[in-house]
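tool=predict chain=A
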Amino acid sequence: HPVSPVPCPCRVSSVLHRDVKQFGKKHMFDGSDETCWNSDQGTCQWVTLDFPQAVKVSQLHIQFQGGFASRLCTLEGCRAGEEPVKLPVLYPEDTNAMQISFAQLVVEKLKITFEKSTDFFGRIVVYHLGVLGERL
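tool=predict ok
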């Protein structure tokens, strides 16, 4: 089951043309195949999730738009009051398909950095982002 059926506090590095209504972060969590978060251009776009309590993460689900994916995702996580720790690196494919990564992490804050965009301008497009696991 998803850790949070409703979006937990989330921040993103940028939004295309600052058009939050059309391309904002909320679209990663709305369950719609018609909407997405679309970053602006620039290298190393990112998403942070702040969970209301510690969670044991078991899976990370992410669906990019092909051509606007990340070939390398670095993860950082921590519990409240701790310094962020580098977590396992993900190597997603440049595809439209939902991609699932397995992990065993206990965090209250999770940052996903999209290091190598397949788009020449560094834009990232995410249709779905899900964190599965359990609250502790």
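The longest helix spans residues 20-23. The beta strands are 10-12, 37-38, 45-64, 73-78, 85-90, 98-114, 125-135.
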